[in-house]
Amino acid sequence: MVFYRTWRVKRTTVLCHTLRVKRTTVLCRTGVVALVVTDWWLSKLLIGLDRWIFLCGGEMEEARESDFRKVESNSYMDADDLDLSRLLDKPRLIIERKRSLDERSISEISIAGNFRNVESYENMFSPMATGGRSGWNTPASSTPHALEPHPMVNEAWDALRRSLVYFRGLPVGTMAAVDNQSEEVLNYDQVFVRDFVPSAMAFLMNGESDIVKNFLLKTLQLQSWEKRIDRFKLGEGAMPASFKVLHDPIRKTDTIAADFGESAIGRVAPIDSGFWWIILLRAYTKSTGDISLAESSECQKGIRLILSLCLSEGFDTFPTLLCADGCSMIDRRMGIYGYPIEIQSIFFMALRCAFSMLKHDTEGKEFIERIVKRLHALSYHMRTYFWLDFQQLNIIYRYKTEEYSHTAVNKFNVIPDSIPDWLFDFMPTRGGYFIGNVSPARMDFRWFALGNFFAILSCLATPEQSTAIMDLIEERWEELVGEMPLKIIYPAIEAHEWRIVTGCDPKNTRWSYHNGGSWPVLLWMLTAACIKTGRPQIARKALELAEVRLLKDGWPEYYDGKLGRYVGKQARKFQTWSIAGYLVSKMMLEDPSHVGMVALEEDKAMKPVLRRSASWTC
User: Fold this and answer.
1) Is-contact 272 328, C-beta < 8 A?
2) 210-223 helix and 297-310 helix, angle to the nearest 10 degrees
3) What is the maximum span of the chain, computed from C-alpha positions, in angstroms?
4) Quick one: which of 100, 145, 428, 604 could link to 475 by a disulfide (CB 3.0–4.6 Å)?
5) Residue 173 has pLDDT above 50, yes or no
6) In whole angstroms, how far apart are CA 488 and each of 194, 217, 326, 343, 514?
7) Closest C-alpha to 163, from 180, 175, 181
8) Please, which pLDDT band fits residue 57 given cuts at 50, 70 and 90?
9) Average pLDDT, the chain
10) What is the three-class DSSP state of 358?
11) Do the Cβ atoms of 53 and 60 come closer than 8 Å?
12) Percentage above 70 pLDDT, the chain
């Protein structure tokens, strides 16, 4: 059996010569490296060379067998005539030193030319689209002599598969946690839309797309249900927070019970569920190359119904979405009411994903126009008013108040005395981030991890702002990462403020749960953001920290303490998204092309054309 692969090397100089290796021929010409492998075990060399060429700025291409017939006739020698020892006497490859992936952004090196069209991440090469699998540590690999995966990876896959939920014999999702030691199940045995996203990513990267497709279709069916809380009817496009499969062993039937917020703590409908569904639909499409699902009439209608809810006109003077407390991952009262960064970031991401998937038919064009206008206004608003760095903090510190008219600098009438004391020490001279909330006379200066990471992935953040967010993480590593990645919010609120903001919530005490707790699931978002900004070394360092304890502690939901040192006091063990988050992070670092499923590139074509007003004169 013979394997062929070529790499087109850019930004390198390769001397013209032929290397001869036992049972292998490496053909080197200017700008091209070719490898012909004649045995299974030697095929593993392809993996290492893929990564080596990638780090050198090269491009991996699958070679056509016909391309090698000429090569073999002139340069390929019999395997018995090849001797590895002769390499010692051969001239060496001389490659110009170029910045590696650790030093350059993915957008700069363009992943070996696999980015095309408007969004480079939109068209990133994915092995899933051609039937392959992720990296070389996935247990589902069909290669007979696959390299042994890390023991923790095997344990994670086993735990993830134990969480699968089946409906009429088909897997439709993963339950939130499989903690057999917990006496109270509560709703942790349900399939949550937001919780399933990292599980779906892991399955997609491992070539198991059917599970994700089943989930997308099943939740789409639930969207059409009539949704009532007490006597009030929810919008038609609302997606459920979660659903549960009920098995009747006597009748041998399966039924589904969905929760749209009527059973949730606080009775708050999840604003983010619809956004996560759109984001996951795009990830499925990019990973598999199957556009038929997204283009089906059912999915097109589902996208439009979600957009109808969030693009409807009202009394809002801002392009951001007005939200209640507890409407997102932070699903308890934590003072995020108003315009939380977490919702705005994934809202922006969902709009861009919907823009790429909507058909340009009569109904689709109307929504596309509304999306473009909203994206333009939202990006300006967020980059201008939510961004905080050392310079902007100094400006706010010197704000004048009670300004009137359109010339006002302090447009939200924020009182400088409301700036918390901790912020002056926390803000480094190098770095910045999107603050938690901006509304009249109020700025929430807390750090929210998910909102900032998705600001990077969706390109809501400018390249300079994305770099500054990564700088902040490095500068404030102990505060934001500590001993277990990653703080969901920083800092914790405590004492009198905790009583007022949380209503004395016993679960959200200081440095616990949503109030400054450390959540391993955030690791995959950090990793994707690091790869996109060309800083994978940050993700590797965080992953190494997580590997020290995650498996040993039983995959907890969250950790407590300033440094994330203690397993959360009410944390569930074998939390599915902690497991999946680790796997996704691991596979992204092994194969950075996977980041294309969740990372977008700036699309200048979406910016509206600026036209002169009727009153314009020369």
Assistant:
1) yes
2) 60
3) 87
4) 428
5) yes
6) 15, 30, 14, 14, 7
7) 175
8) very low
9) 81
10) coil
11) yes
12) 73
Average pLDDT value for residue range 495-512:
96
Does residue 428 contact residue 476 with C-beta atoms inside 8 Å?
yes
Q: Is the pLDDT of residue 618 over 70?
A: no
Distance from C-alpha of 577 to C-alpha of 558, rounded to nearest angstrom: 11
Q: Which residues contact 464 (CB under 8 A, 6 or more apart)?
A: none
Which residues, other chains included, contact 67 with Cβ-Cβ below 8 Å and sequence gap of 6+?
Answer: 4, 6
Distance separating alpha carbons of residues 139 and 151, to the nearest angstrom: 10
Identify residue 146 by its one-letter amino acid code: A
63 C-beta neighbours (distance < 10 Å), count: 17
Of 200 and 61, the structure prediction assigns the larger pLDDT to: 200
**Which one-letter amino acid corresponds to residue 186?**
L
Q: What is the 3-state secondary structure (H, E, C) of 382-437?
A: HHHHHEEEHHHHHHHHCCCCCCCCCCCCCCCCCCHHHCCHHHHHHCCCCCEEECCE
> What is the H or E stretch that residue 77 is in?
none
Neighbour tally for 349: CB within 10 Å: 24
Sequence-separated (6 or more) residues with CB below 8 Å from residue 376: 606, 607, 608
pLDDT score at 34: 43
pLDDT at 54: 45
Read off the pLDDT of residues 377-415 as tens digits, 9 standing for 90 and up: 999 999 999 999 999 999 999 999 999 888 899 999 999
Task: Kindly tell me if the per-residue pLDDT of 95 is higher than 90.
Answer: no
The pLDDT value recorded for residue 8 is 42
Alpha carbons 241 and 251: distance in angstroms, whole number: 28
Strand pairing partners for 21?
24
Q: Given CA atoms 63, 67, 68, 74 in this order, what sign does their dihedral have? A: negative
Query: What is the residue-wise DSSP string for 442-503?
Result: EEE--EEHHHHHHHHHTT-S-HHHHHHHHHHHHHTHHHHTTTSS-BSEES---HHHHHHHHS
- Contact residues for 434 (Cβ-Cβ < 8 A; gap 6+): 341, 345, 382, 386, 387, 388, 448, 451, 452, 455, 461, 465, 469
Kindly report the number of other CB atoms within 10 A of residue 184's CB atom: 8
pLDDT value of residue 413: 95
User: How far is Cα 27 from Cα 370, in angstroms, rounded to an integer?
Assistant: 54
Q: Is the preceding omega at residue 170 within 30 degrees of 0, hence cis?
A: no
Across the beta sheet with 191-192, the strand order is: 191-192, 242-248, 253-259
pLDDT of residue 148: 61
188 CB-near residues (< 8 Å, 6+ apart): 175, 176, 177, 179, 182, 572
Q: Work out the pLDDT band at 605, boundaries 50, 70, 90.
A: low
pLDDT digits (tens, 9 = 90+) for 519-571: 999 999 999 999 999 999 999 999 999 999 999 999 999 999 999 999 999 99
Residue 528 backbone phi and psi in degrees, to 5:
-60, -45
Q: Which position has the token pair 């699309």? A: 603
Residue 461 has what pLDDT?
Answer: 98
Q: Omega of the bond prior to 491 within 30 degrees of 0, cis?
A: yes
> pLDDT tens, 204-224?
999 999 999 999 999 999 998
**What DSSP character marks residue 176?**
S
Count CB atoms within 10 A of the CB of residue 355. 19
Structure tokens at 389: 């760095």
For 135, the token pair is 């990296």
